[in-house]
Write a structure and sequence with these properties.
The chain is mainly alpha-helical. Helix content is 70%, strand content 3%. β1 and β2 form a beta hairpin.
Length: 429
């Protein structure tokens, strides 16, 4: 019952029936969330007790990000914005804890990954139908933008990008969930029992690939590339995985859109503009170590278009370190040494690791620090790590060693981002 309700919640979240129905305020998400809390509330409360919570350091980081965000507003005396963030991110954190409490067996995790494929099929199909004029849904109308310079024509070209609804109402967001859906489909195909079932799970990847092409998202493309390399190496071994990737490279330029195929640091290109936004954020951080959640655009003019830079600048070293550490813990937990026997969880490892790696790469071109999709990815990793268990996981808990790791990784992450920004700015000049 609780799993069915949680899948329904994700259906409402991803497809957004309200927006498909001319923006009618049906408050479906709130209604279904309340039903979920009635059924799964006791599980969430049990998970929030410290003996269990400390065994899931990613969950502690999520709560820490919430606290850091609140403090970033309080230190500036902004009471109303503090209350708004407390409520807004509280709903995001609630989704995360609902996920890690309901998905509590390998079978449920496997089932949920399959349902994600189905939901992404539905959402991307609607976007494609709108793109080809088969349906007319205002919320799904493609966007035209003029920020791509066509060298052959010597002028700015109009780029049409499809997108999804609700939290995926941006080509970059849609691209990231398409990558996630593709890797979930790969996992289900590779673990299916019959050839026919495997083919059925592989079929959606053609649709996902076509939709990804039409997003014209370069950040999403980078996420796909990183996810593909990680999946190949984790599935077939480093040598064979890299050979597979190398064999596919010659066909890549023919599969990409004009904008996606041109990634560079030319003056005036959006890539250069985003690096400049990172730099401006670090300059603002020098003047004020914590500018406050939601104030990046006010200080710089636009959001960072880099989730990690965004976290450090808005929430300071404390919040930025926790945000970075959540992803570091996810990667470390998913790269634990393989056991001698191969379980159903081991077969998920390569896909989940690739999903996390792809999302991290995609996050370098988009600011998505306080939205549900980010914590869905972290939640999937936290669930797998918790279910897997091993002798090595005895050290995988939030203790003084983890605190040292947060500080060390946090400082190194901030320095690394600053150095990367500096190098990229020099290359673009």
């Amino acid at each position: 019952m609780d799993l069915a309700l949680f899948v329904m919640l994700n259906g409402v979240l991803i497809i957004r029936p309200e927006e498909l129905a001319d923006g009618s305020d049906m408050r479906l998400y709130l209604t279904v969330m309340c039903l979920n809390l009635v059924i799964a509330g006791p599980k969430i409360l049990a998970m929030l007790q410290w003996p269990r919570l400390r065994r899931q350091p990613i969950s502690v980081c999520v709560l820490g990000i919430w606290i850091a965000g609140v403090l970033s507003k309080l230190v500036r005396g902004q009471i109303d914005p503090t209350v708004d963030f407390l409520d807004g991110f509280g709903k995001v954190a609630l989704y995360y804890f609902l996920l890690v409490s309901v998905i509590d067996t390998p079978e449920r995790l496997r089932s949920f990954l399959g349902w994600l494929v189905v939901l992404v099929i539905a959402m991307s199909a609607l976007g494609l139908l709108q793109y080809h004029g088969i349906v007319d849904i205002d919320a799904l109308k493609p966007r035209d933008r003029r920020d791509f310079f066509d060298v052959e024509k010597g002028e700015l070209a109009v780029i049409t990008q499809i997108h999804g609804t609700g939290i995926y109402n941006d080509p970059n967001d849609l691209c990231l969930i398409l990558v996630t859906g593709s890797l979930c489909a790969l996992y289900r195909a590779f673990t299916a029992g019959s050839v026919l079932t495997r083919l059925l799970w592989l079929l959606p990847m053609g649709q996902f690939g076509y939709a990804l092409l039409l997003t014209q998202s370069r950040g999403g493309l980078v996420g796909l590339a990183v996810a593909g390399v990680i999946w190949s190496c984790a599935t077939f071994g480093r040598r064979r995985g890299m050979l597979l990737v190398a064999s596919l490279l010659p066909a890549t330029p023919f599969l990409l859109g004009d904008r996606q195929a041109n990634i560079g640091l030319d003056k005036g290109d959006t890539s250069t503009g985003r690096v400049e936004l990172w730099s401006e954020g670090f300059k603002a951080m020098k003047n004020n170590p914590v500018i406050g959640v939601g104030d990046y655009a006010e200080e710089v003019g636009m959001v960072a278009h880099n989730s990690f830079v965004h976290a450090y600048v808005e929430m300071g070293l404390f919040g930025g370190s926790l945000y970075a550490e959540a992803f570091i813990l996810a990667v470390l937990g998913l790269t634990l040494r393989k056991e001698p026997t191969v379980s159903s969880l081991d077969r998920m490892r390569s896909s989940l690791l690739s999903i996390v790696a792809g999302y991290i790469a995609g996050s370098f071109s988009i600011s998505r620090n306080y939205v549900i999709p980010t914590y869905m990815i972290l939640g999937l990793a936290a669930v797998w790590i918790s279910l897997k268990g091993s002798d090595r996981l005895q050290r995988y808990s939030f203790d003084r060693f983890t605190i040292r790791s947060v500080v060390r990784h946090g400082v190194l992450g901030l320095i690394g981002l600053w150095l990367l920004t500096t190098v990229l700015l020099r290359l673009s000049s």
